[in-house]
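REQUEST FORM: STRUCTURE PREDICTION
Request ID: SP-0412
Submitted by: Lab K.M.
Chain count: 1
Length (residues): 267
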Amino acid sequence: MASPDKDFVPVLDKDGVRLTVDDAIATVTLTNPDKRNAQSPALWRALAEAGRQLPGSVRVVVLRAEGKSFSAGLDRQAFTPEGFDGEPSFIDLARGSDTELDATIAEYQEAFTWWRRSDIVSVAAVQGHAIGAGFQLALACDLRVVADDVQFAMRETSLGLVPDLTGTHPLVGLVGYARALEICVTGRFVAAEEAVNTGLANLAVPAGQLDDTVRDLVSAVLAAPRDAVIETKALLRGAQDRTYEEQRAAERQSQARRLRDLAGVEA
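STATUS: Completed
RESULT:
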């Protein structure tokens, strides 16, 4: 993929993550194509920092990756006795208390949680392999546009682990329990056509059209008034936890706020 953020001075550029901002659009790029954008605790901290660095002007965040693969998942160095320099190895983590282990995993998850904030719409542009943590990072976003060579896979269960980077909730919400279970426990690849047909992806396009397609989608999102987008996102995000009658009431309350705002009438 070409680099749509190459002409902007990075707000953040560290540990395989680059954040650039162009007014209402922020772009977060994974920048370690030689390792297929494999992930590490340092990368997760950089992703979490990118979320904290977003200016208030940002309405849409695009997540993309350099190279042929979006992300090959967790760097296998994590499973070696020495782990990463300056980081506790997974073996060391396993020897810690339940409280320490829970706190560490919660810290890792922060890289994956901010993408669904109500004040932004996040769009993942995914090409090639998106495996394990890479799959979960794509799932962290609101929308996914994929290249026709995409290969999603959840490999944690095959390694004797479970997906723990916030991917299970959106996966079940998108494809249902039975298919989510089958994808996770088999570790099989999900290609572009199935991803679109099951709701994992919004669109699939030839790899050479990925950037332009994402750009068009972002423009369409920005064409709607910001407050209406924020209210609509919150309304839809909460729908799965509400009854039909509760959702009707939420619609009325949201619309009342919008009408008063448009009319300049205070509640």
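NOTES: The longest strand covers residues 17-22.
Reviewed by: T.R.
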